[in-house]
Amino acid sequence: MENFYYEKIISWGLLRQIKAxxxxxxxxxxxxxxxxxxxxxxxxxxxxxxxxxxxxxLTSWKKLNGLVNEKWNNFIIRKCKWxxxxxxxxxxxxxxxxxxxxxxxxxxxxxIIRVKNENLANELYLRIKEKEEKFxxxxxxxxxxxxxxxxxxxxPVPLGNAHPLLAHLLQISEEGKVCYPRMIDTWxxxxxxxxxxxxxxxxxxxxxxxxxxxxxxxxxSVDSFMEKYSEKKNI
Length: 235
Hints:
Elements: H1 2-11, H2 15-28, H3 36-49, H4 55-64, H5 70-89, H6 94-105, E1 107-115, H7 118-129, H8 135-142, E2 153-158, H9 164-172, E3 182-184, E4 187-197, H10 203-234
Antiparallel strand pairs: 1-2, 1-4, 3-4
């Protein structure tokens, strides 16, 4: 019966996903029920992640997915209990993991101008450097990226969201200093670091990092299961 079950969900392309959910159920079996604040917090984060911005939109999503009344409560309680398990299980690993990730968890405010032409980039850089024109005016007039609409301003955003080369430049740059044009992918880029906002290991960060570690744990557990399952099938 078990083999038939797995063969069926393999044919649906859902084996990894369903095995992960089975592991979650196993781990949270003895986790306490969340209190109301924890429940509400998960609802807010879940709605934000899924871009559900109103009660009407949430009601429509519940009906569409068959999660009304008690089923919706159970859905959220399960997510709460998984979050609580991750915090408990990875408690002694959070500090080191945070330090490893800190440079990418910090947020950054910066200004950027992107153009395709190297000569234009150099000319624009000189105009800014010689104070002939303001950075934001040039960005709004010449930048070819979406930052054109915000006078070149970006952020605050997590440093880890930026292109690796851009993130490195922002880390080593002085605040307020305009960097000469660099090529990143297909763009010639002029940047100015505005402000670095250091992250802190508060309750929200602990929750975020514990869930990241939980996802790593799940992926490794599912990988191990898939390997053993494949070996058994080949016997």
